[in-house]
Amino acid sequence: MNELYPMKFNPRFKDKIWGGDRMKTILGMDYSPLPNCGEAWVLSGVPGSGTKVTNGFLKGNELNELVEIYMEDLVGEAAFDRYGNEFPLLVKFIDSNDSLSIQVHPDDALAARRGIGNGKSEMWYILEAEPGAEIISGFNRKTDAKTYLEFLGKNKLTEILNTEKAHKGDVFYIPAGRIHALGPGILLAEIQQTSDTTYRIYDWDRVDEKGKARELHQDLALEAIDFTVPDSYRTAYRKVQNQTVPLVDSPHFTTQILAFDKAIRKDYTALDSFVIYVCVEGMIRVECGSSLESLKKGEVLLIPATTENIILSPSKESKILEVFIS
Question: Which CATH architecture has domain 12-224?
Answer without folding.
Answer: Sandwich (2.60)
